Structure formats: structure tokens, C-alpha cells
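pinging the channel bc i need a second pair of eyes. not urgent but kinda urgent?? the chain im working w is below, pasted from the shared doc
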Amino acid sequence: MQIDRRKFVKQTAMTGAALIASTVVPDNLFAESEFERLTILHTNDVHSRLEPFPMDGSKNAGLGGVAARAELINKIRRETENVLLLDAGDIFQGTPYFNLYKGEPEIKAMSMMQYDAATMGNHDFDAGIENFATQIKHANFPILICNYNFTNTAMEYKFSPYKIYQKGKIKIGVFGVGIELKGLVAENLFDKTIYEEPIEKANQTADHLKKNNCDMIICLSHLGDKYQDNKVSDEILAKQCYDIDLIIGGHTHRFFDAPKVYRNRKGGDTVVNQVGWGGIQLGRLDYSFARTGKKKFFEAHSFVIGKKIRE
């Protein structure tokens, strides 16, 4: 199925960029020649929301939609040199588009927006692992996940545990971790997929990326922000990791007012961010890299996508 981009543009209101949170270090902290910037844009739990929420008087009326998101992403790319666009899973399930087309237009839309990588959420198995493996043939970006063993499944050769990106002089390692599928997904849908302990696998993968001289390590996580019990979460991962600089989270549909910062096991900072669900927000995180290689997190925004108008 080809996505009718003009139709989406006509049906979507002009992008509204509402600044939700901002932590700023002045640009003159370093001389311009002494550092490079990296802009990370991210989504999670879009759930097949290709068009804006309907104008039905609800609190999300008019928000979201891939046309408005693409417009904002393109604007940022025109203004910023080094950009990574990432997604933390649950691409599928939630609108009739998925019921009818089983994820094809969702993946094609992400490819049109030039996503750099995504991980898998539990709802990405909703039409079966074979279906997901079929739909990602439309992707021009990799599916990254390090704690699902896909041996003898349809996904066996269609994913990577991690990928290394070069943006200017900045080397970034990105990997993904997924939630326990048993109890969330019918076993016939994930087939022979073996879930492996995410903190151990995340630390192993991050260590490998560190040894490959990555300046920054990003985890795309579908574990969830935090829980009342001891269930593994982004908060636990952040506190028990060694080398992860940023966790882009999903699953729990939390709209963070600002990123959370945790002290990791090396005594450094691990940042966690999540931008709700339904493509309502686009997260933006900006980092600066001095010549010494030291990162300086200096700005965080969440942009509301679309124009909220009540009928």
C-alpha cells in the first residue's frame, strides 16, 4: 500500500510546536569550534496512529498524525546538522489501519520520515512474528533488539542487536531491549522467541559499544518507565547499567514533563525519556560533545504534534 502523503497533509492541521520542558546550558559554554552537537528525536507507542486523533471533542482531538510529525522533523533537519530519529516500539495496533493492512503503512510512513532505528514492543507481535518479519521488508531502517533470541523464527535474520552511527565526528551506539512477552502476548504469536534477561544483555551490549569507541550509547527500551513492584523497568536499568548514556523508553505511555536522570553503577548520569503514546509528542534531546569527548546534556523539549482544535 502506498501512503497518500497529500491526503495526510490535507487532513492534518499545521504542526504546533509546544515547548513542554527545557533545561538549558548557555551556548557560549564552549567556543563554537570546540564542540559538536547531536540532536536526538524520538517517539514511542505510536500504535498505528497515522492520522490525527478525530475532531470529536476529546482531549487529544486534532493531535498526532504522520504528516504533521514529518513536517516538524524536516524543519528540525533543515536547522540542525547531526540528527538521529529513533522509536522505542509498539509501532502497531490501535487504529483500523493495522486491522486492515497489518502494519505496512506504519512501516512505510516511518521509512518516508527516515527513521534511523526502532525496537520492538509487545504489540508489534499482535499479528504474529511472521507478519512483523514480512512488514519490515518495507523498512529502510533496522530493528534493534539484544535480548530476544529469534533463532528458528521468521525474525532470525531480520534484526540486529545494535548499530553504530557516525554523525559528523560523533560515534553513537544504539541498541534495543524488549519486555517479557509471556503473559502479554499469546505464545503462538511470538513463536520460539526466547526472552533473555534485559539488564545483563544491555550491559553486555553497551560494553561492546564502549570498547568500539562510541562517544555515546543509547538504549531503545520497551521495558516501561517504572513499576510498584520489582519488575524490570527503565528506572532499574538506568541504576544498574554502566555505560548507557540515554534510555529512550516506551510501553507505559508516560508523558514526561522532563527527562529523568539517574546515577548509574559507574557513578555517571543515565538519562531516561518517554513521550507518551499515539504520536502526540515528538521528543528532542540535544547533546554537545567537547574535544575531550565529554558529553554535556544541555536541552530537552517535547513538541506537541498537530493543532488542538475543539469542534
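so Confidence is low (pLDDT under 50) at residues 1-31. and The chain has one domain: 5-304. — does that match what u expected or am i reading it wrong
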